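Our preliminary data section would be incomplete without showing what the modeling component actually yields. Below, a chain of 1262 amino acids is followed by its predicted structure, encoded as tokens that our downstream tools consume directly.
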Amino acid sequence: MTSNLECGICAYDDNITYVAISPDGSIAATFNPYDSSISIKNVETNKEALISFDRNNFLDKESSNNNVWFLNTFNNYYIRLKNKKQPENIIGWSLAVSDIINITNGTCLVAISCITDKDTNPKEITEIEKDSSRRVYLRIYLILKTRGDSRILLIILLLALYCLFIQTFTYMYTLILSIAVFISILVFILFLPELFYSSKILEEDIEQDRLSRASSEGVIKIFKTSFKNNNDDGNTSINNCGGVVTFLKRSDTSVILVCTNSIKIKKFRIKLNKNISISKGDTYLLPENLFKIFYNTKNAKDKIKNAKINWKYLSKSMYQEFLMINTIDHQKMNIEIYNVSTLQLVNVFYKDDFLISNVNEPGIFAVSINSRLFAFSYGDNAITIYLMESGLEIVSKRFNDIREIKFLKFIEEEKKLLIIEKYEKDNVKFTKFHIWIISGCLNDYFSISNDTLKYEEYYHITTKADGKIVFHNHNNQVEITTIKSEKNDMSTDEHDGHSYNSHDLEPWNNSIETIRGGFLNNDRRFPVITGQNSIQVWKLISRDFENFEEFKNFENSKLVYIFISGNIKPEKVTKFPDMNTVITHACKSLAYLYKHVKSNNSKEILQQFVNGITDIIKDFIKGNPDNWKLMEVQYPLMAYLIYSRSISLIKYILFDANGQTRSQKKNIGMLHRPQKRYDSYPYINDLKLYDDFKFEQDYMKDDDSKPTNDLELALKLKDEPAYGELALEFRQGRDAIILAYLLEYYSENSMTHIGWMINVTKILPKLLNDDYYASYINLLLHKPCFGEMKYNFPIKRFRALSYGYDTLEVYAPLINLISPNSLDILRYKKLKDVISPDIYMVPLPNFTTHKIEKFEKSSFYEEYEKIIHFFRNMFIPPCYNNIDDKKLSSFLQIKKNERAFFNIPAMEAAINSRWDQTKVHWKGSLYLYFMFLILFSSLSHYYLRGYNSIDTSIRTGFGIIIFYYIGIYLLIIEIMQMQKYAKKYITIFNMFDLFSIISGMAIITLILLVKVFNKADGISEELITILTTVTTLILWIEMLLLFRLFSVIAINVFIFGNILKKIIPFFAFMFIFIIGFGHSIFVLFMNPLFHDRNQDNPFDTIWDAILSAYYMSSVDLNIYNYWPLKLFAFIANVIIVLILLNMIIALMNDTFNKAKEDGNLGLLMYRAELIDDFERLDGPSLYNSPYICFRQDPELMKKWISKSQEIKETKLYSWFNESIDKNKINYDNDDIGEKLTPSNEYQVLVSSSIVASSYAPDQFGS
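Predicted structure:
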């Protein structure tokens, strides 16, 4: 600890030199808080500049030369501040340097942050003002925003004005208020369970939010400097804001500075004019798991030590825009990566095999330049590499000659990984450099000896950026190193020239020409063939060849390398010590043979070549599984295997001998990982994938239809296509089995990580919308992942998306950095521990997320757009947008026609996840219709009672205008739906919606014509009364149907509809009996015996007779002493009352039970219909979460669970008959696995292998 007695400052920081490098690696900076200057250097030009630095002036906030600002964390604005006391308990510093901002002047920014104990130790924050009013305001605003609609304001305004106009008419006033109160109470009762239900599941935790309102004692100072004039152009301070600082990559004229402490993250946008201009800073809370690490740090008694531990942890967790958090839960490490620039979670990664050394130490990590790969080490001698987009582990490798890993960096794009090791020599700690080639080659690791760099405990002495490593050595010098491995020079292979007939060695060519042969480096074990369009390397099976004439193709040799291509220049052959060449060329050769071999008489010889090529690949996989995994994520090898229909080879890669997916814990492990796009592979341009497949020219122009990943390619292939042909969808045979293999593989593995399904999401609509796939898509949807995928993210905060009666409760995890002043602080709450085991995931990431590109807008423009939308929706119905269906989410693209679709828990959760926002919109229509019904009731009653004077008509005129406005508003909605959906609009419910609006407006129009304008002569009041009565009933039924927005009403409406459909045929049967008996007794009463009686005759007319037959049990026939009548009455009572009525009761009871079981189905079908309509409207952006979670309910899921258990052992590919047409070349060689004999020929080949000159050696590593 050092003390500055003059300023009264206690400094616990060490006298160390900090280094930093700009995001693009062009500028390096060094800084020591006890020196008088900051040094910066342009890495490319070696120009240097100095910035004057004075520690005392830095901490003096009354300096008149600088613009001093204080950040108010509650209101997020700056105020001028003077006479602020000096910061206390300084524990360290943070340094950051930006990219070149002005190329002409070579201007850049340097930021230095002074960090105090309160910045890194949350427990040191004790005094915080209460802020209950803020949370009350936010809670009220949240309720209004999530439960309200702009049309509610319109309804309240119109209803209040209308009541004001008619308040002198007691009858109408009372009627309107009675209906309004009745419906309001009903809505409140239906809303009440949903408003308070989430409190049983979620609970608030406001500790981090409370601490975020405390101000910091730290200081940030930003310096502007230029390499042109080499002087300090000015600086600006941000007071009360300390933490680890970093600049983000520059995307426009401004620069983003990020400051992170143990509670929150602050982002400042800095613009350079004449002076430094800092815009209003935005504040975001740290991810909860990182905050917990800081809040629960050990050594709580030593607050300075505690703060230093957190400071070191935070410094190591930040790299450019990435923030990494690793936590341990149940002996499993969870790694979260956040992008501070986008404020989003990038992905979650898992690691099982690790040794816990220090839970207070963060892991060592690196992210590739294109953010495709993620490398992680916990500081031991093991490194795990993951795919960023899916979160899937590629390979984990333990280096036996490395003791302790301290630094990782991807170099040469993502082809190699630099490793810095800490080791001891003569009791002195040093560092050593290592290179791991991660392209899959066999010789993939070597060390770079470097004993001149002394190891320091401080993380801040080493930093990294694109291709650059900056460190401060023990000689107090700054070194900037660009790590590149040397490329091996290749020499031409000279071999003997032997001429052969090409028929046996290139049977795929129709023309027969002379080809050359020799030995590889004169090694008589390896014959080399250079043909018309191929290069082949063979290995003698039993002994060395005495001369080349002994070479007999497959009779005495084994194929170990082949490359077939139309672009080969056979006169140029080079050595190439890389196994990547062997495997990629083998895969390309399979695709070439499949594409070019159509009808050929050399089928047997061709089959031998196909078997030999497949042997090469399987042999390599069996001997080097980890190398294959790395190679498979760098090259699109699976695409070539899919195109060539190498079914057996694909099955070998995906499954074990028993047909089960390979376990990660086994020696070989899972050998294939999905990737979203082929163009993300680093070597895709070298391989020329699409050229190898020779798609049709018009197809190539359509980038949206071009297959971008393995699943799409398998979906688009057609069995045995002609040259250059690619079908839009496969139909039969071997292509179907490839898709089934991939879907089985992904769905089974997804139980461990949702990333396995990243490509299934996109193709699912195509599978579900085509009846051809119905047979095995049903199997797919009953895989365990669609209802039993446990939520395994370390994030425990959720937002409730849907909860209600008889539906799955749906939640979304917190995957973004939230502002303490946003509504998200109230939306996201902690999940109660007792509920956590019941939370499951929908296995389809981004299933409900639209693919519409959003343009970055200013905050002012966004607020302006929201206001315009609010008032536009208030007066004009929203229109439908013209977005292509391909841009919509996969969920919306699915045609939800099959009832079985709604029984899948994952699909029900997806529907419910979109329901809350949809319901808010459709409640607006409910409120409008509510007003429409009130006005219809009041106006019709008013005029039917005879109040039609001029004075009263003027008073009700305002109500008439409102009535017609609402009616037209609702009618426009129906007309737009008719235009949008055409024939699909014609349903019973839609027709009833339309009829209710038209009939309501028609009746009021008729009443006005008769009562006010004295038109429409001949229409009686009785007719008007009857029509009004019928219309009133219709309007109330429509109101009931609109209440289907609430799950209780929707389920009961569905039950009623089901019962009605079941009993209508029986009613027809029963009414025939009733009509028959009624007519019979009516005829019987024609007997003259009954003509002179004075009693009322219940069978006087045919209609009375039928009605009396229905009420036979209540008709008194004792006054008639006529035995035929009594006999007919007895028979009618037995059949109608005793038999038929009891039959209908039994039928309704059985139908009710079945309908009740399917009640949830009707609710989901209705919700899906409204969601589909709502999300096609032109409106503000919706809440989208890539991950959807739900609480498992066995009662609601029992049908799916039963079916899933029933077909549990059934594979998606079980229907496939693996017999092959004998007239075709068999790319499905099932016998090869038995012939594999791992040998050392590839070790020889690696040091002497060859490659055609169409590929440069550096394209495949070194």
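Residues 598 and 722 are 8 Å apart (CA to CA). The first strand starts at residue 2 and ends at 4. Preliminary results of this kind motivate Aim 1 of the renewal.
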